[in-house]
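Hi there,

I know you've been waiting on this one. I reran it after we fixed the sequence typo, so this is the corrected version. Both the input and the resulting structure follow.
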Amino acid sequence: MNNDHKLIFDQIKKLMKKYEPPFTSRNESDSRYELWSEKELEIDGRKRKEVYFGGIIIQSNYVGFYFMPVYSDASLKDVFGKELLSTLKGKSCFHIKKLDKKLLSQIKKALESGFKLYKKRGWI
């Protein structure tokens, strides 16, 4: 395991841990961490017992930061700074290879915005 990736993982995990509870952690290990809302709800007419919020996983060349709130509201991308946007691969996965204070701050802001969105929608 790349030591830099472990440091990145630990810093992002520390930010995410602040949302536990109301979120529940799953698959928590030295290289993976996920947050879920375990609440019965309905999204787009489909009943669900849970909804994924986000997660991190150490990959061979980067730390993957998965941020699901952007799926339910694409305007959340507006809160991403250009540094965070430059790591976006696909719709909700960020490949973090280097982490500085600016990028960490943007991840923190994204988590806050996503949390507010889930709360507003009654998903937590």
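Quick highlight: The chain has a mean pLDDT of 92.

Best,
R. S.
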